[in-house]
Design goal:
Keywords: Acyltransferase, Transferase
Organism: Bimuria novae-zelandiae CBS 107.79
CATH class of the largest domain: Alpha Beta
Family: Belongs to the acetyltransferase family. RimJ subfamily.
Protein name: Acyl-CoA N-acyltransferase
CATH superfamily of the largest domain: Gcn5-related N-acetyltransferase (GNAT)
CATH architecture of the largest domain: 3-Layer(aba) Sandwich
Order of helices and strands: HEEHEEEHHEEHHEEEHEHEE
Number of domains: 2
Number of helices: 8
Pfam families: Acetyltransf_3 (PF13302), GrpB (PF04229)
Largest sheet: 8 strands, mixed
Number of strands: 13
Strand order of the largest sheet: 6-7-8-9-10-11-13-12
CATH topology of the largest domain: Aminopeptidase
Radius of gyration: 24 Å
Distance between the termini: 45 Å
Helix content: 25-40%
Length: about 325
């Protein structure tokens, strides 16, 4: 058993009210049942971790509307259900006060259990006192630890980067449509390991990318690239830091924006974000002249050419590797 409790903070009700008013404004066009404070900090007088948990209860048909409103108006990040069916965790860009915000389907287990637990502890002085004593004792013994959604670990997300013509930024849920436009084109994925993405696959990929952006340490870094306000592509890296730090790079752009130097501009801004003392690698099909020419333009050197390196989409293809140390 673990805990991270502190004596009850009398300012918690006012803090929750401020959060609730902000959420009400963001959800002004959404039908929702309630916005409630849950878990330990919702119980007056109870020793608790210093994090406010908030649930927005909605009907099933309004889940997407609520999430979209928080993402588009409040810049929240949809982290998905994270294993809790009927409950979506929304990461708030405003770090203070510390909070967890959830969108929950009315009638789901979280909406039945958590308010009931809160109400029981509020009404039962003996139960509340005993629970608080145990929490504080565990904290004093140093057996406290926070779950993955509790507390703020240092984020490795990056701030938006502006170049002469581009904006590089973290992915958001709203990128699903332009991501699908990009990755559903046969010409774009011609030399990729996968066929054109379906709408469902695009949704899953964007959701996964957003979730991965909060990982610590971060081993998968992928940014959306905009030109004049339009999503035109993506750049990314897989980082392996065991032994010699190694980074596999990739990039993908809409055909209409290829051949204009935009990919080189994006990668030139992206690579410095990854740090130093790294071995960078770009691997491609030799027939993909755009990729290996970009690698050379970025100062990469040809490292290895392997004939019939692997099977892809029913044919054996060669592998051309470029590397560079920074």
């Amino acid at each position: 058993m673990s805990s991270n409790a502190y004596p009850y903070d009398q300012s918690l009700p006012a803090q929750f009210l401020g959060i609730k008013l902000r959420l009400e404004a963001l959800l002004s066009d959404v039908a929702y049942k309630s916005i409630e404070q849950i878990r330990d900090t919702s119980v007056p007088g109870l020793a608790a971790k210093p994090i406010i948990d908030v649930t927005i209860v909605v009907a099933p048909e309004n889940v997407r509307h609520a999430i979209d409103a928080l993402v588009s108006k409040g810049n929240f990040v949809n982290m998905g259900e994270l294993g809790a069916r009927g409950r979506w965790y929304l990461k708030d860009p405003e770090l203070q006060p510390e909070k967890n915000v959830y969108v929950c389907v009315d009638g789901s287990l979280p909406t039945r259990y958590q308010p009931g637990s809160r109400d029981t502890q509020t009404q039962d002085d003996a139960l509340r006192g005993g629970y608080a004593a145990v929490e504080l004792e565990l904290t004093a013994k140093g057996t406290n630890s926070m779950g993955p959604l509790e507390g703020s670990r240092k984020s490795e997300r990056v701030s938006a980067i502006k170049t002469e013509r581009l904006l590089l930024r973290e992915f958001v849920e709203a990128d699903e449509d332009p991501f699908f436009e990009l990755e559903s084109q046969e010409g774009v994925v011609r030399y990729q390991m996968w066929p054109p993405r379906t709408r469902a696959q695009a949704h899953d990929e964007v959701t996964k990318t957003v979730r991965n952006s909060w990982a610590v340490p971060r081993t998968h870094v992928e940014l959306a690239v905009e030109h004049e306000g339009k999503f035109i592509g993506r750049v990314g890296a897989n980082v392996r830091r065991e032994g010699v730090a190694h980074v596999d790079l990739w990039f993908s752009f809409l055909p209409a924006y290829q051949g204009k130097g935009l990919a080189a501009e994006a990668m030139s801004a992206f690579i410095p974000l990854l740090g130093s003392a790294l071995e960078l690698e770009i691997e491609c099909d030799p027939r993909n002249t755009g990729s290996w020419k970009l690698a050379e333009r970025l100062g990469f050197e040809k490292f290895e050419l392997t004939a019939k390196a692997f099977e892809c989409k029913g044919e054996w293809v060669d592998s051309l590797v470029y590397r560079k140390r920074i």
